[in-house]
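debug: dumping io for the single-chain case to check the tokenizer round-trip. Nothing else runs in this session.
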Amino acid sequence: DEHDRRRAQTFRTAGGAWMLPGLLRPDEVTERTGLRAPESPAYETLGGFVMARLGRLPAVGDVVEEAGIRYTVERMDGRRVELVRVEPLAEPGGNEGGES
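debug: decoded output
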């Protein structure tokens, strides 16, 4: 079943990035990671988002950055984005003491 397959491919790396199936909907990405994935009528899945932002068929290693999150294509299955690395970008000064 496709739902089980999508769930099985979701895991977190030692570095804190998420490895997610390209078939996940943006709301599923947010639910699993806590990171707000962009939503649009132009696409229905994480892979579709990457393709829409690139304006072409993605290739392994392609990177899209949006709203403080980096999306990296890790694996393709023909023309379909199979696996995407999703990681928050470090904010400048975000780990410093916050003195004013």
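debug: round-trip ok. Helices lie at 2-8, 26-33, 46-54.
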